Amino acid sequence: MILKGGVVRESLDVRSKDYIMSRPAFFVDKYIAILLLSDDVASRAYVNLKQKKGIELGIRVDIVEKPNENDVKNVLDMIDEFNNDSNCLWIIVQLPLNESLTPHLATILAKIDVKKDIDGLWGALLGYSQIGYVNFLPATPRAVVEILKHYKIDTIWKKITIVGQSNLVGKPLAMELMKQGATIFSFNIYSDQDVMKKCCRRSDIIISATGKLKMINKDYLHSQWGQTLIDVGWWKINGKASGDMDFNDVKDDVFAITPVPGGVWPVTVSCIFANLIDMIEMFG
Amino acid sequence: MILKGGVVRESLDVRSKDYIMSRPAFFVDKYIAILLLSDDVASRAYVNLKQKKGIELGIRVDIVEKPNENDVKNVLDMIDEFNNDSNCLWIIVQLPLNESLTPHLATILAKIDVKKDIDGLWGALLGYSQIGYVNFLPATPRAVVEILKHYKIDTIWKKITIVGQSNLVGKPLAMELMKQGATIFSFNIYSDQDVMKKCCRRSDIIISATGKLKMINKDYLHSQWGQTLIDVGWWKINGKASGDMDFNDVKDDVFAITPVPGGVWPVTVSCIFANLIDMIEMFG
């Protein structure tokens, strides 16, 4: 089975749009602020995608660029303004920052009001979720979970390998799946490849967000057992996108797999808005 | 090697005491408030231990019991008072709560000012630490890490099995050891025992906080490879304490092991005060 992201995205978007349209008085002056503080081309493309999705769903998204983006104080003042503006629902600081701001990353993210930190970058929401007070997952790990849910692939009590331990994907995904009662094998780039292979072969679900092109191949799979593979990787080689998994090598040996392109990534932007709706419901 | 907790406790206490004595003007009116809201005998004993340790280290610890402990509003008001009292450094709500308060657990813990939440129960500190902004570990997982550090048992890039996924021990320990670059195998009570055994055999370090008496025996170990075992379990059978590991069965086959009693638990209370010192240094 090919786990296409498009249908998952659509069902998330329908839910978000219905919610926004059902509360016109609340949303009329509300907006999301995205701070774009670098010249990174991929960041600009991603920010534009977020803005387009916002318009599609009926919520204003302001992309804020400042000529004096190198001035930390100025950036902090901007965030403060958004914190204090009750019409600003969420503040997104698009990462990576430019070079001169990077040393101030913690200070900048810390400035964002916890309840406006849609990306959960500042950690408090992750902690609340770890304890179980709220359910919150940043957009990318949520996209993984939404795909599994949509295609009715059970995670409870399953064995799940997660390759990658980043703050944005690997760590929150491990926490979330532990909450669901899964046994977790968590690997990083320094992990013993032989052990990783053995654990992958034993896993019901393999999730890769490691950033090694086509690393997961047939060698990592159980020969009979129908496994599910979720590929969070994204590479563009000679104009062609591919992921952490060698799709053509493994596709006939698995129960289900997300393609690249068209798997996890199309779902992530929709998850930002799904998070927005959930947080409004939680925090009012 | 037997990893005795006593020396680790002593070195942590010396550091805490030196710090407190070096800042007499700061600490003179400061105190820690412990809310004891149940009749649980073990809780009372543990709270008394904390108070005794505080006195030993030079900081006042107030145990607060209220006759109307069943009144949620009263409990929340008390917490508010401590939040607003600048002399109150930390607020500890001793768990478990009594039965009538248990449904209000989240509300009660949420009331504690993040910067006074020494136990990290409310999650925000865990999230901050997950992101890497602060280093924070609740007392019990910190005790595990302090023992490993004291005995110079390296965790970087190691394979580590953690049996147990609780909010207080298993989850924060997994996050912390991921930050240190370890490969993590995380199990819960529903996990496949056969896979757990295989992962244990492959691990450099096995940490058990699962609450199954003497579950880890020779079957779980590699026959030649010197492994380190950390036992967070605590059981009292016929007046004799023992842990999650079958100490006598495994002790000759491992590189190092914490005994029960005398291993992890004596270090935990000292870790509360070590956390106190670190948080004062971080947040002022």
List the helices and strands and how they pair.
2 copies of one chain form a homodimer.
Chain A lengths: L4 H18 L1 H4 L3 E6 L4 H17 L2 E5 L7 H13 L3 E7 L10 H7 L12 H8 L7 H12 L8 E5 L6 H10 L3 E5 L5 H10 L2 E4 L19 E4 L3 E3 L2 E3 L4 H4 L5 E2 L7 H19 L1
Helix pairs in contact in A: 1-11, 3-11, 7-11
How would you describe what is shown here?
2 copies of one chain form a homodimer. The first copy, chain A, is of the alpha/beta class and 284 residues long. The first copy, chain A, folds into 2 domains: 27-113, Rossmann fold (3-Layer(aba) Sandwich); 139-266, Rossmann fold, CATH 3.40.50. Helix content of chain A is 43%, strand content 15%. Chain A has 11 helices and 10 strands. Chain A has helices at residues 5-22, 24-27, 41-57, 72-84, 105-111, 124-131, 139-150, 170-179, 193-202, 247-250, 265-283; strands at 31-36, 60-64, 88-94, 159-163, 183-187, 205-208, 228-231, 235-237, 240-242, 256-257. In chain A, strands 5-4-6-7-10 form a 5-stranded parallel sheet, with helices on both faces. Chain A has a 3-stranded parallel sheet with strand order 2-1-3, sandwiched between helices. In chain A, β1, α3 and β2 form a beta-alpha-beta unit. Chain A starts with a helix and ends with a helix. Chain A binds chain B through residues 106, 109-110, 114, 120-133, 157, 159, 165, 167, 170-172, 174-175, 178, 181, 183-188, 190-192, 195-196, 198-199, 202, and chain B through 106, 109-110, 114, 121-133, 157, 159, 165, 167, 170-172, 174-175, 178, 181, 183-188, 190-192, 195-196, 198-199, 202. β5 (183-187) of chain A pairs antiparallel with β5 of chain B.
